[in-house]
Amino acid sequence: MTTTTIHPTPEAVVAFAANLRGDLIRAGDDAYDDARKLYNAMIDKRPAFIARCQDVTDVMTAIAFAREVGLPLAVRGGGHNGGGLGSVDDGLVIDLAAMDGVRVDPEARTVRVEGGATWGKVDHAAHAFGLAVPSGIISTTGVGGLTLGGGLGHLTRRHGLTIDNLLEVDVVLADGRLVTANEHEHRDLFWAVRGGGGNFGVVTSFLFRAHPVETVVGGPTLWSLDDAADVLRWYRDFIRAAPRDLTGFFAFLTVPPAPPFPEHLHRRKVCGIVWCYSGPSERADEVFAPVAAFGTPLLHGVHPMPFPALQSAFDALHPAGLQWYWRADFFDELSDEAIAAHVEHAAQLPTMLSTMHLYPIDGAAHDVADDATPWSYRDANWAQVIVGIDPDPAMAEPLADWAKAYWAALHPHSSGGAYVNFMMDEGQERVRATYRDNYPRLARIKATYDPENLFRVNQNIEPKN
Ligand SMILES: Cc1cc2nc3c(=O)[nH]c(=O)nc-3n(C[C@H](O)[C@H](O)[C@H](O)COP(=O)(O)OP(=O)(O)OC[C@H]3O[C@@H](n4cnc5c(N)ncnc54)[C@H](O)[C@@H]3O)c2cc1C
Prior knowledge:
- The protein contains 14 helices and 17 strands.
- The chain has 465 residues and is of the alpha+beta class.
- The chain has 3 domains: 10-95, Uridine Diphospho-n-acetylenolpyruvylglucosamine Reductase, domain 2 (2-Layer Sandwich); 102-212 and 436-449, Uridine Diphospho-n-acetylenolpyruvylglucosamine Reductase, domain 3, CATH 3.30.465.10; 215-422, Vanillyl-alcohol Oxidase, Chain A, domain 3, CATH 3.40.462.
- The strands form 3 sheets. Strands 10, 11, 12, 13, 14, 15, 16 and 17 form an 8-stranded antiparallel sheet that branches.
- A hairpin with a 4-residue loop joins strand 5 (102-105) and strand 6 (110-114).
- The chain starts with 9 loop residues before the first helix and ends in a 16-residue tail after the last helix.
């Protein structure tokens, strides 16, 4: 395939910059190299322009410029996307980072969030009112990308996916109109943004339902890698039967060489479960009793903590600028054969930060029908992600080789598709496998709201009536 680089006239660029309240950064500017950096340093894109939008009008101006000039367009929320879908070579990036306002309504138990905020800001603001919005497990992740793809994390079993708590969005469409979508207005658009990614426009504002979650009992239980098969077999049954106010994701990991981990465990490969119990505190001991009693834990480190402390507990381990290679799938069951493949590949974790996570996506996430949102795998019980991570660019290939081999061994046991937010840029077949029967409806809504596929730097839905 040949690509043509578009060069807008200098006059058009000057007029565009003059119409923006935020900065327009161009290749060669002092700020350019910093501004184009993505969270995943494995992806190195060189956009022609980065518009640091300050408000909705800036977003409208930027969309109009890209459309009129014919520039490829990318939208950047938190910039965390594994495949680097928040940027584009030779095109225009709409950078929403400055649009990060958060407003909590404690009476209505809702939180309104601008399109470029990160979850840490939401957690901080909501916690002051004893509330939380279900999101992920790392607070530096963008609200925009995480929500539009689905959003799974510590509160999924209790309160559902992030999209299950989304009440309304303001969206700037490809034709420049600003619309509000909710259960009453633009209902088809509201359906589509709850899992269909950034395909339908730039979301400048999200309205979420929040829940009374303040102090949780959380942290890891770790076991020896030699016990991994037993732990996984116990875990698959335990968590499915556990009350919804308990979530725990399973991980293969290397113990970080830092507090709060005891020195004798530093750099040891282990398996573990990171727990979040958000129910009544007086029941915590009872809920965790079977956990502490299972096998011979190397560490049972669960404690009461403010919810934002758990949400940000892993932030320092994962600063921006590392190499990341992701592979993902959904699973209905964890068969004994799948567990054997896990144990084999986990023993070969290539670097200290590389990991495999299995997130339970049952509980409240199962209360929603397969076609009520684009997230079609409501019957799946697990979202698995294999991630090779390291600071050293020379490790990029070994990380990818390990993740691909591990994924290939597990894929035959999977349900078929994967969580879009855990995928790299993997092509149409994977996107269709993920949306399954919801894909044709997404394609029709795409044809209504973005017939020219202006928003195509994403897990792309091709417009089709
Ligand atoms: C360290 C780490 C931890 C993670 N943990 C979790 C987790 O616990 N749970 C989970 O569900 N996911 C998790 N993810 C995956 C995460 O959801 C995706 O990487 C997601 O794409 C990040 O969103 P972003 O806004 O930061 O990314 P970006 O790269 O900015 O954007 C990703 C995609 O979303 C689009 N987009 C972003 N904002 C908007 C907007 N306002 N309007 C329209 N389109 C927009 C972009 O165009 C792009 O296609 C994690 C990722 C990382 C790197």
